[in-house]
Amino acid sequence: MGKRSKPAIKGKLKKKPLSEITDKALKRYLKSLNGHDPANLYQLVIGEVERPLLKNAMDYAGGNKSQAAKILGINRGTLRKKLKFYDLLEE
User: Which of 7, 25, 44, 67 is least enclosed by beta carbons within 10 angstroms?
Assistant: First the structure.
């Protein structure tokens, strides 16, 4: 089993953890398929989550790619590549 990363926010949160919200959303999505098998579920979830994650990190960092990459825990080059992929790259 891999090393678990620490929560981004220390202390008790009053809101539901993101994992719980994600779990419920996935269950609703799968139920809505009415017995049909999902296709490319992994890519669907990553695509739905990654773009707003990147956008919010960039907004939080005031457009500073180095700071946003640090917040996300990824390399600045990786962030730039992902921003370009999702058409979020501002020169």
Answer: 7
